[in-house]
# Entry
Amino acid sequence: MGKALVHHIMKGKNGKPKQLIVFSRDEDKQYNMELEWKNLKVTTDDVFYHPDEVLDFQIGDVRDYESVVRAVKKADIIIHAAALKQVPMGEYFPFESIKTNILGTQNIIRAILETSNNVLTVLAISTDKACKPVNTYGMCKAIQERLVVEANRLCPKTRFICVRYGNVAASRGSIIPLFQEQIKKGGPLTITTKDMTRFILTLEKAIETIIVALRSADAGDIYVPDLPAVRITDLAKAMIGKRDIEIKIIGIRPGEKIHEILISEEEIPRTIKKGDYYVVCPVLPSLRKTETKEPVLAGELSSADYCMSPSELERFIKDGGF
# Structure
């Protein structure tokens, strides 16, 4: 998703950035990404700024406070997408998840609080797993959301906001790339349980959510797109099509839920609707700029209640090129 976000920003639809810093710890991915941009040819459809004028690549780790400080000094807007997000792995190595998903977020907040900088906005990317969490990843992201809300009190000159959504269809580690790889090998497609459902969105919708929140969110807001969900068994069948490929039930892995929740019943009293998005207002009353009058939801947003029909799912797969 980070690569897709850089691509979107470099198209210039939201204005030309003075500089776009790609901050990560993976030097190999950074090097390959830099080569891709240097070799990119301008087309009539995608007019990019010259990469050397705008793009800057920095090696660093959100876990390392000193490297975060160096990156923060140059930033006006920070999009915090760093995460350890593989759910079962987080159950085996919970403190590694804490170091990236909680302490990494705190390093950004601390760097803004304790050093000279001009950061106007920090947007943190959360997940539906943060809502009524049962796994380490979700628990860490739930705390990340609380840290982001509280940071608005600590650093009043900087706006801290979140976006929260489900599975990004083409992102690293998500279900569709896994199924694609299993189909290439002739199967089987592995499913944890036949009843499992997940909220799903395209890369384009994920990026649109980030841009909308950057433009519109008040301090402490969590922007949540109104998303469809899929029954994983239906997704597997739709991707298999007419191929003779087996579907194998392997059982629920450590930390997994059967259904996910985007907005909990506890959050409904402080949730409003803005256009196509739900906005969960801050848990701290002193930060809320909008008070809810009538609930915009009759019940929590559960993936069990919003599953796409087979025809809708086929269209989703076709439109997404999956």
